[in-house]
Amino acid sequence: MRVLLTGATSMIGEYTVRELLRRGHEAHVLQRGESDLPVKVFRGDIRDVDAVRSAISGCDVVIHAAAKVGLVGSYEEFFSINVEGTRNIMNAAVEAGCRGVVYVSSPSVSYSRTPVEGEVSPPAIDDVMGHYSRTKSIAEREVIKDNRLHAVALRPHLVWGPGDTQLVGRIVERAQQGRLVLVNSGDAVVDSTYIDNVADALVAAAERIGVQHNLNGRALVVSNGEPRTVASLVESICTASGVAYAPRSVSLRAAVILGAIIETVFKLRPHSEPPLTKFTAYQLGISHWFDISETMNLLDWTPRISLDEGFQRLARGL
C-alpha cells in the first residue's frame, strides 16, 4: 500500500511514517520543510493545489495530519490551512482515485465549557473555543460527510512522548521556572495518549479505510483509555523528566478571567504565544475523557504502550 502522509515534521507524522515502514508499506510525505525520513518527500503547502495533486498522485490512501495548531494567528489563517487545505486534499484524493482518507482531527471539536466523561466520540459542534478547534470542527464534518470517497476521522487526545515539545516541553519548562500552575488543584480527569499508540491507530485506519466499510464517515477518539487527573499526569511527566513538581493552584473561574485578560493583551503581540487563554483554562479545569471501545473494535487496535510504561520511556528518552 502506498500512503501519502501530510505534516510529517510533527511528532505524530514522524512516528506514523516509521510505523508505516515497519509494517511494510510505501510512505510518501508532503511537507513544507526538510525531512530526514527515508521516504519520498514532496515539498509544498497543502494550500497549493498543484503541490497537493502531485504528492497524492499514485497513492492508495492519504493520512492527512498537516494543520495549523496553537494559539497564535488570525482566524483567516487557521481557516485557510485547516479547512481550505483539507478541501484540497479531499479533491485531489478523489481525482487520484484513492480508496480513502484518514483525517487527523482532535477531541476538542466536540466539547467546550462542559465536562465530557465517558462518551463515545460525540459529534463535532460549532460551539467550540479557539480558532484551531473551530476550524478543525468544520474540516472534520466536511471530510466525514464527503460521499465521493471513503474517509474516517481519528481524534488523538493529548499526545505525548519522548521529544515532545508541546505538552511535555511546556510542562517541564514551567516547572523549571517555578511557574507551574494547576486549575482547581488539577482535579479534572483527562485522557492522554502515548505517541506510539497514535501511530498504531492511524496506520490501522489507513489499512482498513475503503476496505472495511463500517469505518466510512466515522469520527473515533484515540487515547490510552486510562483517564487520570491533570495533577497525576503533570506530576508523572515532571518525575520522568527529572524536574521538581511544586505547582500552585488557581480556581477555574479565576483562570478563565485571567485567560481572557491575557488574550486581550496578546492581541497587541500577534506573534507571541499567550501563556494562558480561556480555552486552555477550560482544558485544564474540566474533565474530558472518552470511551474508546468503539475505536478499539472498529480498528482491531489496542493501546500497546500503557501510560506507566510511557513514563518510563519518557525518562529514558530525555
Automatic annotation (TrEMBL):
It holds the Pfam family 3Beta_HSD. Keywords: Oxidoreductase. One of its GO terms (biological process) is steroid biosynthetic process. The keyword Membrane does not apply. Residues 5-244 form the 3-beta hydroxysteroid dehydrogenase/isomerase domain. The keyword Transcription regulation does not apply. GO terms for molecular function: oxidoreductase activity, acting on the CH-OH group of donors, NAD or NADP as acceptor. InterPro entries: 3Beta_OHSteriod_DH/Estase, Lipid_A_modif_metabolic_enz, NAD(P)-bd_dom_sf. PANTHER family: BIFUNCTIONAL POLYMYXIN RESISTANCE PROTEIN ARNA, SHORT CHAIN DEHYDROGENASE_REDUCTASE FAMILY 42E, MEMBER 2. Belongs to the 3-beta-HSD family. This is Unannotated protein. It comes from freshwater metagenome.
